[in-house]
């Protein structure tokens, strides 16, 4: 009996160590948002919780920084939500439509379209970042939400995911629908979409987090400070901290924290959907 | 395609159109431009360009700096992949085993998935702050003056640490779901045949996890190559200088800041070839994976 207990202690010990490894950096960040900047410069993070959170929070959210004075935490938060939700919705809608066309219609060029679309899975945006920038510039979409979101959608992960799922839907369903006189549009909206609810939710979570956390593309595409997302703003924060006499750690730490909280909440609260979406989409 | 599909023609074309237009404009066009401009030398003032054949590639391969960055990228990828896989595997095996608090551990170990890479880099910068960073103080105890952004190895270590921290959750989730899909009967049979938990792990569990592991290997290499951009950029604080950087970061620095379009495009093409090779390798593994399960 004693041996069993010892191994349980080791198991929990390892898991607690692992959890601490994951948690401590964020807890440190959290503590640093509660103390004034002057204390950070003197002692850095400590174990005591200060009372400056409201102050730091107000500075970060409502006071403008940067050159234009339009770059508040609130405006960055708004842009982050637009990017995260716009990207997720766009990707799901376009992906579902394309997957439906590929799986359920007799098309002569279906195979060709399939290959055209799925080749995009082979190359990430990062390897064609400069020409993509030029295309967006040529289209006059720099510093716009379209320019921010649409090029990120040009990869077929969602299409692939829904194609796999549609193929697993029993054939009898579409046969029955046809016998009952349902056309392709009715079948899609009344049967297939409700049937895909869980898949849509899972995909939405993954895509929201992915879109929210985009960094390189927004860094290139948005130069207007009122278009910055929180994650893109991190770069500016780091550079501002470097040059300042009294670096505004309070403000920057609150912003970093806010950049982390929404996607983390989504992942934690919808954990089972998220895990399902992640492990099934990549297979 | 389904056997019992619909025969309309206009609707599917309409449905496919948005996807096709977007990938034509934002995938095929830029990819072709990248391929093409890798064979040209761009005038720095934007007055046209001259065809130079493979000159851009030759310049890259003979450049000491590029070779050094490529070498760093390889080392960086191996270290990040190895450590994030190893840590995640240990944690997944333990999380699969414990009964009490299993759900809490799972949540605590996976939430970092949602943290953006540049934020991970930012936290690393704070922890390694020159005057009061907790990790700087930790290394100070051993007599090492830690200097991120000045000392090459110190900066590299901060990058690797942040990248591993950020990647452990993904691997943990996949390993855990792989472990949980091992049938009960197999585990019980192994329990009866083999009393030692260690050899049971290496003889039964580990081989059954191998397909997941191979798949994750590719995912992790791709992550180290591309997704760590945000970490590299924040840790070097936007000042490449003598700091370690990855190949993707170099593409960005040369093309976007240095305006060397040809050289940057050639680098993009090299990365394309690299990632294509990895993806094809991955697809072949997935085929094999089906036989396992």
TrEMBL record, chain A:
Domain spans labelled ABC transmembrane type-1: 77-270
Signal peptide: none
Topology versus the membrane: Multi-pass membrane protein
Keyword Repeat set for record: no
One Pfam family in the UniProt entry: BPD_transp_1
Record keyword Cell inner membrane present: yes
GO CC annotation: plasma membrane
Matches recorded under Gene3D superfamilies: MetI-like
Keywords on record: Cell inner membrane, Cell membrane, Membrane, Transmembrane, Transmembrane helix, Transport
Annotated TM spans: 12-30, 81-102, 109-125, 145-166, 187-210, 254-275
UniProt-annotated location(s): Cell inner membrane; Cell membrane
GO biological process, one term: transmembrane transport
Subunit structure: The complex is composed of two ATP-binding proteins (UgpC), two transmembrane proteins (UgpA and UgpE) and a solute-binding protein (UgpB).
Family: Belongs to the binding-protein-dependent transport system permease family.
Annotated function: Part of the ABC transporter complex UgpBAEC involved in sn-glycerol-3-phosphate (G3P) import. Probably responsible for the translocation of the substrate across the membrane.
The protein's name in its UniProt record: sn-glycerol-3-phosphate transport system permease protein UgpE
Gene from which the chain derives: ugpE
């Amino acid at each position: 009996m004693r041996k069993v207990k010892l191994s349980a202690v080791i198991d929990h010990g390892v898991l607690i160590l692992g959890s601490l490894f994951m948690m401590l950096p964020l807890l440190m960040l959290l503590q640093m948002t509660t103390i004034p900047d002057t204390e950070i410069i003197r002692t850095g993070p400590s174990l005591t919780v200060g009372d400056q959170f409201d102050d730091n929070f107000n500075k970060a959210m409502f006071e403008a920084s940067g050159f234009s004075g339009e770059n508040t935490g609130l405006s960055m938060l708004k842009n982050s939500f637009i990017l995260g939700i716009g990207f997720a919705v766009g990707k799901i809608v376009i992906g579902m439509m394309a997957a439906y066309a590929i799986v359920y219609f007799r098309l002569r060029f279906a195979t060709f379209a399939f290959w055209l679309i799925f080749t995009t899975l082979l190359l990430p945006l990062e390897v064609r970042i400069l020409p993509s920038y030029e295309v967006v510039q040529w289209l006059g979409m720099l510093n716009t939400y379209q320019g921010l979101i649409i090029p990120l959608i040009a990869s077929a992960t969602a299409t692939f995911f829904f194609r796999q799922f549609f193929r697993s839907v029993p054939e009898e369903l579409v046969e029955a629908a046809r016998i009952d006189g349902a056309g392709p549009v009715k079948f899609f909206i009344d049967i297939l979409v409700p049937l895909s609810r869980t898949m849509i939710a899972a995909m939405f979570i993954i895509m929201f987090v992915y879109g929210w956390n985009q960094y390189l593309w927004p860094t290139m595409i948005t130069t207007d400070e009122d278009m910055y997302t929180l994650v893109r703003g991190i770069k500016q924060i780091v550079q501002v901290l470097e040059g300042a006499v009294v670096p505004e750690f309070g403000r920057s730490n609150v912003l970093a924290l806010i950049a982390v909280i929404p996607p983390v909440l989504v992942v934690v609260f919808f954990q089972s959907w998220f895990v399902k979406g992640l492990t099934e989409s990549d297979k | 395609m389904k056997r019992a599909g619909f025969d309309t023609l206009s609707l599917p074309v309409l449905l496919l159109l948005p996807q096709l237009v977007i990938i034509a404009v934002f995938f095929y066009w830029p990819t072709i431009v990248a391929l093409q401009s890798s064979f040209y030398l761009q005038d720095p003032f934007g007055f046209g360009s001259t065809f130079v054949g493979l000159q851009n590639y030759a310049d890259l391969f003979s450049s000491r700096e590029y070779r050094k960055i490529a070498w760093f990228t390889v080392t960086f990828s191996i270290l990040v992949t190895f450590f994030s896989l190893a840590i995640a595997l240990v944690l997944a095996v333990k999380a699969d085993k414990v009964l009490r608090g299993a759900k809490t551990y799972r949540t605590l170990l996976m939430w970092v998935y949602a943290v953006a890479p540049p934020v991970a880099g930012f936290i690393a910068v704070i922890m390694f702050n020159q005057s009061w960073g907790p990790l700087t103080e930790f290394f100070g105890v051993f007599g090492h003056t830690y200097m991120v952004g000045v000392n090459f190895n110190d900066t590299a270590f901060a990058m690797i640490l942040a990248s591993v921290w950020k990647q452990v959750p993904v691997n943990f989730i996949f390993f855990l779901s792989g472990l949980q899909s091992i049938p009960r009967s197999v585990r019980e049979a192994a329990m009866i045949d083999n009393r030692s938990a260690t050899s049971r792990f290496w003889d039964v569990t580990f081989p059954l996890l191998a397909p997941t592991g191979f798949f994750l290997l590719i995912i992790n290499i791709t992550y180290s190559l591309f997704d760590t951009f945000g970490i590299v950029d924040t840790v070097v604080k936007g000042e490449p200088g003598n700091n370690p950087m990855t190949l993707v970061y170099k593409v960005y620095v040369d093309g976007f800041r240095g305006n060397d379009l040809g050289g940057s495009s050639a680098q993009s093409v090299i990365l394309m070839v690299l990632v294509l090779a990895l993806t094809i390798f991955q697809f072949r593994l997935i085929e094999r994976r089906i036989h396992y399960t």
